[in-house]
UniProtKB/TrEMBL annotation:
<dbReference type="Pfam" id="PF01964">
    <property type="entry name" value="ThiC_Rad_SAM"/>
</dbReference>
<keyword id="KW-0411">Iron-sulfur</keyword>
<dbReference type="GO" id="GO:0070284">
    <property type="term" value="F:phosphomethylpyrimidine synthase activity"/>
</dbReference>
<dbReference type="GO" id="GO:0046872">
    <property type="term" value="F:metal ion binding"/>
</dbReference>
<keyword id="KW-0862">Zinc</keyword>
<dbReference type="GO" id="GO:0051539">
    <property type="term" value="F:4 iron, 4 sulfur cluster binding"/>
</dbReference>
<dbReference type="GO" id="GO:0005829">
    <property type="term" value="C:cytosol"/>
</dbReference>
<protein>
    <recommendedName>
        <fullName>Phosphomethylpyrimidine synthase</fullName>
        <ecNumber>4.1.99.17</ecNumber>
    </recommendedName>
</protein>
<keyword id="KW-0949">S-adenosyl-L-methionine</keyword>
<dbReference type="InterPro" id="IPR002817">
    <property type="entry name" value="ThiC/BzaA/B"/>
</dbReference>
<dbReference type="GO" id="GO:0009228">
    <property type="term" value="P:thiamine biosynthetic process"/>
</dbReference>
<keyword id="KW-0479">Metal-binding</keyword>
<keyword id="KW-0456">Lyase</keyword>
<keyword id="KW-0408">Iron</keyword>
<keyword id="KW-0004">4Fe-4S</keyword>
<dbReference type="InterPro" id="IPR038521">
    <property type="entry name" value="ThiC/Bza_core_dom"/>
</dbReference>
């Protein structure tokens, strides 16, 4: 079986590429050529032919990922299925199943069966969780088992995997030598791998046998997302030498993987102050040859716990603006607890809104929807207004709860509605369109 990347390089437009082009409102050749150059990925799992088609990358709408999964403290298949369905209802584009507690095979299979989103995961979680149970020490994991497990999960229908190939002895040495780390290590998979390497005094097998990882991904046409195991967990660690060492290696691996015909993404960057986000994205794009960038937030402050979906949304709007392609949501439970169903809903909503804000800046030519909302609002066309909103049900509910006397206004200003007064004064003067006015001048 050839991957979407290999087919694109042969000039073939696959049914998935066609579907993605229709969904995005772009030319089929834009999708095909983006995949051929490695600027776009299209996760496809032969085990789940009916999963949604989602293309991620340059020139496309910024996508939103929702992560779910059990922990050793809270583990219920029913709850995870509810969370997966909630993410899909809230219009997340992809889902990551990141369980570490309970029957991990059963949870993964149930989630894959119950939702239509492309599902990703982190295979290290199951590998180290099982080793912890079996040997009472995750560092005793047999690295051969890791490869077996990756294949089993791909065969189940996982269509993208975050794998920590970029942590190696070189990047760990950078961490040791720099002499500080305010946020420590915050990646579960990354920390497991660093610990295994230190305990066994060996190189990361996923780095050493990278071609084997790519061969497995190719076999199932899964997207390899190069995990960010030494990401910054505090804004004061942003762009430290350890993080950058891993990013350089990941970007190098992205190029190698593409040469092998594998669809590649790079992950980053964790906690990053707002003024460093544009630079971070520029570095990833420049060093990886334009590989799609899958960002976790980023969180531009460390002190927002309880409202970190908002903290991350601010970072996400900036990252989408500057070129991030897929944004992993953050929920209000971040740094505090395992997210519940409502947290999942809030996280997806906040991140979708952030991605929309970023896209408005990234693609100024695609602002038509915002214009239509503004016109409906200007004309007090409430029903049209609701239909155009991202969250119509929430908007309707708020208005219904506090109904105004004059149905053209709302209870915010009531009799003093500026909109109504302005409309009465200027309605015949402000009906024009800026673009048409410019076009008319050009025609003259
Ligand atoms: S009442 Fe105030 S907030 Fe409501 S529509 Fe009129 S101007 Fe806008």
């Amino acid at each position: 079986m050839k991957t979407q990347l290999e087919l694109a390089r042969e000039g073939i437009i696959t049914p998935q590429m066609k579907k993605a082009a229709i969904d995005e409102g772009v030319a089929e050749t834009l999708i095909r050529d983006g995949i051929a150059y490695g600027h776009i990925v299209l996760p496809c799992s032969p085990s789940r032919p009916n999963q949604n088609v989602v293309a991620i990358g340059r020139g496309l709408r910024t996508k939103v990922n929702a992560s779910i999964g059990t922990s050793s403290d809270i583990n219920s298949i029913e709850l995870e299925i509810k969370k997966a369905k909630a993410a899909e209802e809230e219009k997340a584009d992809t889902l990551m199943e990141l369980s570490t507690g309970g029957d991990l095979n059963a949870i993964r299979q149930a989630v894959l069966a119950e939702c239509n989103l492309p599902v990703g995961n982190v295979p290290l979680y199951q590998a180290f969780s099982e080793a912890a149970k079996k040997y009472r020490n995750p560092n005793k994991l047999d690295s051969e088992y890791l490869f077996e497990l990756i294949e089993r999960q791909l065969a189940d229908g996982i269509s993208f995997m975050a794998i920590h190939c970029g942590i190696n002895r070189f990047s760990i040495e950078r961490l040791r030598k720099q002499g500080f780390r305010y946020g420590g290590l915050v990646s579960k998979g990354g920390t497991f791998m660093v610990s295994w390497m230190e305990y066994n005094q060996k190189e990361n097998p996923l780095y050493e046998q990278f071609d084997r990882v790519c061969a497995l991904m190719k076999k199932y046409d899964a997207v390899l997302s190069l995990g960010n195991g030494i990401r910054a967990g505090a804004i004061h660690d942003s762009h430290d030498r350890a993080q950058m060492a891993e990013m350089i290696i990941n970007c190098e691996l992205a190029e190698l993987g593409r040469e092998m015909g594998c669809q590649m993404m790079v992950e980053g960057p964790g906690h990053v102050p707002l003024d460093e986000i544009a630079g971070n994205i520029m570095l990833e794009k420049a060093m990886s040859g334009g590989a799609p960038y899958y960002v976790l937030g980023p969180l531009p402050a460390d002190s927002g716990a309880g409202y970190d979906h908002i903290t991350a949304a601010i970072g996400a709007a900036h990252s989408a603006h500057h070129g991030a392609d897929l944004i992993c949501y953050i929920t209000p439970a971040e740094h505090l607890a395992l997210p519940n169903e409502q947290d999942v809903r809030e996280g997806v909503r906040a991140t979708r809104l952030a991605a929309r804000i970023g896209d408005i800046a990234k693609y100024p030519e695609r602002r038509e929807q915002e214009k239509r909302v503004a016109l409906a609002r200007r004309d007090s066309a409430w029903e049209d207004h609701f239909k155009l909103l991202m969250f119509p049900e929430q908007a309707r509910a708020i208005r219904k709860e506090r109904t105004p006397e004059n149905e053209r206004t709302c209870t915010m200003c009531g009799d003093f509605c500026a909109n109504e007064r302005g409309y009465a004064l200027f309605k015949d003067d402000i009906r024009g369109d800026r673009c048409r006015k410019v076009e008319a001048i050009i025609e003259e």
